[in-house]
Amino acid sequence: MGKGVKVEPILQVLNASKSFGGVQALVNVSFSVRQAEIFGIIGPNGSGKTTLINCITGFVKMDSGKIIYRGKDITNRPPNQIANLGITRTFQIMRPYYSLPAYKNLIIPLFSPRARKKGGWRGGGKLGDRSTVSIDILEEIGFERDSFVPYKLASSLPTGYLKRLELARCLALKPDIILCDEVFSGLSMSEIASMVPLIEKLQMDGITLIMIEHRLRELFRVANRVMVLNFGAKLTEGTPEEVMEDEKVKEAYLGSEKLLDYTFEA
Amino acid sequence: MNDRGSDMELTTQERRKERLDRGIKVRTEGIYAISSLEEIGYLILPRLLLIMGLLLLPALVSSLYWKRVISITCIYALLALGFDFLAHFVGLVSLGGAFFIGVGGYIAAILNKYLGVSPAFTIPLASLLGATICTLLLLPALPLRGVYFAIVTLMYPLAISRIIEALNILGGTDGILGVSGFPSRWIEQYLIVLIVLVALFGLRRLVNEDIGLVFRGVKDNDQAVRASGLNITLYKSIAVFIASGLGSLGGAYLSHIYMWSGISQFALDFSIIPIAATVIGGGGTLVGPLLGCFILVPISEFLRAFGTLRIVFYSLILMAFIMYRSEGIMVYVQRKYHQFERWVKV
User: Fold this and answer.
1) Residue B320 banded pLDDT, cuts 50, 70, 90
2) Per-residue pLDDT tens for B169-192?
3) Cα separation of B64 and B58, whole Å?
């Protein structure tokens, strides 16, 4: 653990607050994430995890608080601007373009200003076109290049591939930070087992990952640090071992000792 | 297939239709493997049929009245192409046909009558200016989706024609008379046919280009497009610019055909007929709405003999189509053309 983690924070969230009508979804949440770190966010249902991601990526305007990215204030900027800075996200409910084949799904992020600038001419390096680049990205994320899978309509792909497609859409933007909203949920154990090395490889490439997850065992295997939310407020933060030992977390999460079942497997 | 049929199906249904794609497409839409003249013919034939048909039509029709109907049909076809493009490839349901036609028509008339610009320049200028004006006026409505956008596009032509009427500007209810016509009947006939063909094949190419995929992405899932770092309002306005440009072009053409521009160019026919044509022709095919126009507009002219009963027959034809061929002609025809069908025992 801790390979290549640097000290300076890449993303800082300061006192983020958001309420929907009478419901306080986020109450003064602050944390910071370092480059190439895997930062887990856990918490019971309705504890504000997805709202936090929505606030960081600009899909929801915060009531108060600040988001600092590489020393720059990016609070409440529109989502497309934030994505072009390199902060990308996956959606909990997968959102592929159902009427397009899988590889054409990636041409849309490859068309973005960021991908065009970073990828050179036509976003595909010197001579390639976007279709070639998108097939390359799909292969990297676990689509078999020579099979028909990358060419199938997104509407006919199973959940496992759709989750990968969500990640691939982020990768097409050449991201610095990926915010993953439950990439493991709905996957079988073997599918998760094949996803974990992928996540670790992204970290090795220097990409920062912020992961919301309900599958604690898998998250604790990859995460460097974990933050716990409950009723929109931050309970605690620390390494997976520290968080698991925390009495408050056990109480909030399950009201029982069941969390002990998720023993940390180093 | 045999092992798939459950006992239930066996008793209720003894056979089913199996559909197989012709083996000309490789893996996905848009990549073809062509290995023989027959296959080239298979791809070219329908396109050639359409192009030759449209080019021969003005020459085959003898009466002046029906020649003009063809030109008007082409103008409706431009609107229908724009409607289909916005509705099925960008996800914006537009009732703005009348708005686009009216704006283009008035701009062409003003340029020609008051500034003395010749039709060779008024038509392209009116298309660009009209598209700019329409896009700017619709810009506040672009974040709206579905029926709300449709209502705003419907409101503009109604409002503008009332404003012209009430303030008695731009010729008031008489309209702008004395707009110059085309130098010859053949130019009038063939220019619009060529424009329609270019618009059809241009749009078909566009929706499969990378920017076209972005448009389709906006329709499928606009939040994912925003998360992909693209400004959806920008791409929606580009799409509206294209569609309103086609409409304004049609309006400018209309002004020069009739040598007149007036508030009837803001009539709702221009909003409704393109939608009906898209329903009949098959939405999302682009060529379907064009054929729909060539069916609907002439029928509506034939029915003029019945006077006010015309609208009743018209509605009946539309209803029959919606009930028995709701997918549209082209969707049906394309399926029959691109797929083998056979009955298999279940």
Assistant:
1) confident
2) 888 788 888 888 888 888 999 999
3) 10
User: What ipTM is given for this predicted complex?
Assistant: 0.85
| Joined tokens for residue B139 | 């810009």
| Contact between residue A181 and residue A213 where contact means Cβ atoms under 8 Å apart | no
Mention every residue, 6+ apart, whose C-beta is less than 8 A from residue A216. A42, A259, A262
Chain A: give the shortest CA distance to residue B37, in Å: 27
Closest CB to B225 among A59, A108, A152: A108
> Nearest-CA distance from A30 to chain B in Å?
23
Please indicate whether, in this complex, the C-beta atoms of B228 and A57 are within 8 angstroms of each other: no
Asked whether the beta carbons of A72 and A11 are under 8 A apart, the reply is: no
- Band of residue A65 on the pLDDT scale cut at 50, 70, 90: very high
Structural domain spans, chain A: 9-95+175-261, 97-156
Q: How many CB atoms lie within 10 A of CB B98?
A: 28
- Calculate mean pLDDT across residues B141-158: 88
- Pairing outcome for strands A38-42 and A64-69: unpaired
Q: Does B10 touch chain A (CB under 8 A)?
A: no
Nearest to B231 among A80, A115, A130 (CB): A80
Planar angle of CA A26, A27, A31, nearest 5 degrees? 85
CATH number of A9-95+175-261: 3.40.50.300
User: Which of B210, B229, B231 lies closest to A107 in CB terms?
Assistant: B210
The partner residue sitting opposite A97, judged by closest CB among B210, B220, B229, is B220
**Average pLDDT over chain B, rounded to whole?**
87
> What local confidence, expressed as pLDDT, does residue A165 receive?
92
Task: Return the CA Rg of chain A.
Answer: 18
Contacts with B217 from chain A: Cβ below 8 Å: 97, 100, 108
Mean of pLDDT values over B196-214 = 93
Higher pLDDT, B22 or B319: B319
Alpha-carbon distances, residue B298 vs A240, B53, B260, B273 (angstroms): 74, 15, 22, 12
Count of residues for chain B? 346
Cβ contact B226:B82 at 8 Å: no
Integer Cα distance of B306 and A121 in angstroms: 61
Cα–Cα distance for residue pair B313/B305, rounded to 1 Å: 11
Give the model confidence (pLDDT) of A181-211 as tens digits. 988 888 888 888 888 999 999 999 999 999 9
pTM here? 0.88
Closest CA relative to residue B126, chosen from B140, B141, B109: B109
Domains and CATH numbers, chain B: 16-340 (1.10.3470)
Which tens digit of pLDDT belongs to each residue from A102-152? Answer: 999 999 998 888 888 887 655 554 445 788 888 888 998 888 888 888 888
B229 dihedral zone (left: phi>0; alpha: psi -120 to 50; beta): left
Which of A94, A97, A98, A116 is most worth mutating to test chain B (most B CB atoms within 10 A of its CB)?
A: A97
**Residue type at position B294:** F
Task: Reply yes or no on whether the pLDDT at B281 is more than 50.
Answer: yes
